[in-house]
Design brief:
Elements (H helix, E strand, L loop, with lengths): L1 H14 L5 H12 L2 H31 L1 H31 L8 H10 L4 H14 L7 H24 L1 H8 L1 H4 L1 H21 L1
Helix pairs in contact: 1-6, 1-7, 2-3, 2-7, 2-10, 3-5, 3-6, 3-7, 4-10
């Protein structure tokens, strides 16, 4: 059981380590807002990840029998990423015109951005299937909960590290983190392009 918690933690930690909408937003909130807002954001993200991982596990059998569903999710993800890319680009233009930081509902922001992450369910499905091939995972409630909680804590921990070392990251990356919305726009556009190429190449 402990091994499932560990595997969930590692898969999730590594999956959310690379720059993405979630961890870059966490970094931005940590730099621009209060610790309470940062905590609210990470809690919002974690709540959705809990649901996503739990749903992923119980969707595995259906997805394996209906591979078209994965294709639909990926195509939907392309559309969402394009809209997010446009949104973040426009936000970057607005911030150049105004220096005042608007108050936000960080918890709600975390929930929305995490829900828009269309690749979470396929990712956790893949992680669970990998464990199943090595006979390290089964569908009983206790095993599922250990894997789910490990995954949630792994994602929370990497977001915490992004927030905890936000100033250090900013010092090392310079202007890159000063234009986070532009970076987010680039990241989402890149993921959209990569996913699109998978269907045409």
């Amino acid at each position: 059981m402990i091994s499932l918690f560990f595997f969930g933690f590692v898969f999730s930690f590594l999956g959310y380590t690379l720059p993405s909408v979630l961890n870059m937003t966490a970094l931005k909130i940590s730099l621009d807002a209060t610790k309470r807002e940062f905590t609210n954001f990470t809690l919002g993200v974690s709540l959705v990840i809990f649901v996503q991982v739990y749903v992923s596990i119980y969707m595995i059998e259906y997805i394996l029998e209906n591979p078209k569903l994965l294709e639909i999710l990926q195509k939907l993800g392309i559309v969402v990423l394009i809209f997010l890319s446009i949104y973040f680009y426009k936000q970057n233009q607005k911030e150049k015109k105004q220096l005042e930081v608007k108050k936000r509902n960080s918890f709600f922001t975390g929930i929305i951005l995490s829900l828009l992450n269309m690749f979470a369910i396929p990712f956790f499905c893949g992680a669970a299937v990998l464990l199943m091939t090595f006979k390290s995972f089964n569908f009983d409630v206790v095993s599922t909960l250990f894997f789910v909680f490990g995954s949630v804590i792994g994602a929370y921990f990497i977001l915490y590290l992004y927030g905890r070392f936000a100033k250090w990251i900013q010092q090392k990356t310079g202007n890159l983190t000063k234009n986070i919305n532009l970076l987010l726009s680039f990241i989402t556009a890149s993921f959209a392009l990569i996913t699109f190429l998978k269907f045409v190449v």
